[in-house]
Amino acid sequence: MSIPAGLLRNRVVAITGASQGIGRGIALGCAQAGARVVVHHLGTEGATQDAETLLSEIGEIRGKMAAQGNSLADRSTAAAIEVGGDISDPATADKIVRAAVSEYGRIDGLVSNAGICPFYSFLDIPHDAWQKTRSVNLDGAFYVVQAVARQMSQQEPKGGSIVAVSSISALVGGGQQAHYTPTKAGVKSLMESCAISLSQYGIRCNSVLPGTIETPINEEDLANVEKRIYMEKRIPLGRLGRPEDLAGPTVFLLSDMAQYVTGASLLVDGGAFVNLQ
């Protein structure tokens, strides 16, 4: 996907869970749009390696922009920085803000994306799986949104744009996702309430609701050929989603093109929701 280079010109965008999957796709899209990116990841060895690879790719994007004489490629600061830590720990949210402000002086956008989705039938959901899924998906979103919004409300000029990655699962049930769907409904609701609460600071809050996107989270589940074919047939556009499919909608919501959009929920599902049968 080609993202217009000027949409996020030199803006600072923090993205949680950015080392792989949807977060990675969004991070690359933000870089193509001219943003300076704060790449958050879990902090494990594998996630750190993935984040370093992503930083290198973002640097290459800026290098190509500069080689083409694109003035949007501000080379006075790093194209991207990385921050490791468990998003379910409130200290990680503060760490993200400190790193962004230290390197860039402000935060203009946040994409709250970090999440997990283990699969269990309802009667088999371990209580620790319920607690872990909630703490990462919902508590983590609350912590980082609050920390970043505080910074946005204090910086000059004030304001910014926050986009949370919810899910089509916020609108429909899932037989093996009874611990997951409530967290995504909660993320959507969080953005709707924050849109009201934070408007006085010039902060817009929206959510994107992906359908079935091929990522490491669902790789094992989609390895079932029959299930994959069934899922593809339910989608009017005829294919499963890719991480980069979320980049354009998210960049749009972060940009001034969406300056009158707040409290909205944007389905990015290939038409799956309207074709539920």
From TrEMBL:
Keywords from the UniProt entry: NADP, Oxidoreductase, Rhamnose metabolism
Molecular-function GO term, any one: quinone binding
GO BP term, pick one: fatty acid biosynthetic process
Highest taxon of source: Eukaryota
InterPro entries for this protein: NAD(P)-bd_dom_sf (IPR036291), SDR_fam (IPR002347)
Xref: Pfam families: adh_short_C2 (PF13561)
Family stated for the protein in its record: Belongs to the short-chain dehydrogenases/reductases (SDR) family.
Protein name per the record: Uncharacterized protein
Protein species of origin: Rhodotorula taiwanensis
